[in-house]
C-alpha cells in the first residue's frame, strides 16, 4: 500500500507539522499566566475579558512557534488537514456562552474556560496519539472546577495560573511524545 494512503502517514504528518500541538500549549499557557498575574492587580472584569480573548495574542505566537518547532509543513493532500483545522477552531464557538457567563458572573470565566479546554483537548489524544492530552483535559477541567468548589470566588486568580501550569506540563509531555512517535 502507498505510504501516503495510510492513517499512520496522515497522523504523523499532522504531528510533525505542528510539533504535536506543543507550540499552542506553550503560547496559550503564557497568555493565561500573564492574565493570572495581572488578575492580582487589575479589575476582575478586565481580567475576565483578557482571559476570554487572550487567544488573539496566543494564536499568532503559536503559529510562529509551530514554524520553528514543527519538522515541516503539513502535506496538502493529507486527508486530516481540514479536520485538524476544524478541531483547532472549534472552541471559538463557545464565545457566545462566555459572553453570557461574563454578564452573569465574570469571576466564573476561568472555570468555564477550563471546562471548554478540557473538551477541546480530548480529540487531540487521538490526533497526536498522546495520552498527555487526556491528562491535560482532566487536569484543566477538574482542576479548575475543584478549585472553584474549594475556594469559591478566590479561585478566579488561581484558576488562570492553574490553566497555564497544566498547559505547560502538557506541552512538555506532548512534545516528548511527538519526538518519540516520529523517530524512524
- How much is the radius of gyration in Å? 17 Å
Question: Which range does the strand content fall in?
Answer: under 5%
**Shape label:** elongated
| Spans where pLDDT lies below 50 across 5 or more residues | none
* Domain count: 1
Average pLDDT value? Answer: 93
How many separate helices?
A: 9
Compute the number of strand runs. 0
Topology:
Blueprint: H1 7-18, H2 22-38, H3 44-53, H4 55-69, H5 81-89, H6 95-104, H7 109-127, H8 132-151, H9 155-181
Helix pairs in contact: 2-4, 2-9, 7-8, 7-9, 8-9
Description:
- The protein has 184 residues and is mainly alpha-helical.
- It has one domain.
- Helix 2 runs antiparallel to helix 4, helix 7 packs antiparallel against helix 8 and helix 8 packs antiparallel against helix 9.
- The mean pLDDT is 93.
Summary, kept brief:
This protein is mainly α and 184 residues long.
Features:
184 residues; mainly alpha; 0% strand
Amino acid at each position: 500500500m502507498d505510504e501516503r494512503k495510510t492513517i499512520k502517514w496522515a497522523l504523523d504528518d499532522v504531528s510533525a507539522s505542528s510539533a504535536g500541538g506543543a507550540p499552542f500549549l506553550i503560547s496559550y499557557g503564557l497568555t493565561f499566566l500573564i492574565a493570572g498575574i495581572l488578575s492580582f492587580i487589575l479589575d476582575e472584569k478586565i481580567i475576565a475579558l483578557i482571559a476570554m480573548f487572550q487567544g488573539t495574542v496566543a494564536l499568532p505566537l503559536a503559529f510562529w512557534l509551530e514554524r520553528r518547532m514543527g519538522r515541516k509543513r503539513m502535506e496538502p493532500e493529507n486527508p486530516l488537514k481540514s479536520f485538524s483545522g476544524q478541531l483547532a477552531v472549534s472552541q471559538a464557538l463557545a464565545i457566545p456562552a462566555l459572553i453570557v457567563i461574563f454578564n452573569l458572573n465574570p469571576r466564573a470565566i476561568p472555570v468555564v474556560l477550563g471546562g471548554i479546554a478540557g473538551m477541546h483537548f480530548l480529540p487531540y489524544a487521538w490526533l497526536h496519539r498522546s495520552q498527555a492530552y487526556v491528562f491535560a483535559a482532566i487536569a484543566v477541567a477538574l482542576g479548575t472546577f475543584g478549585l472553584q468548589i474549594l475556594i469559591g470566588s478566590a479561585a478566579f486568580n488561581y484558576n488562570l495560573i492553574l490553566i497555564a501550569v497544566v498547559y505547560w506540563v502538557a506541552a512538555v509531555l506532548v512534545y516528548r511524545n511527538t519526538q518519540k512517535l516520529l523517530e524512524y
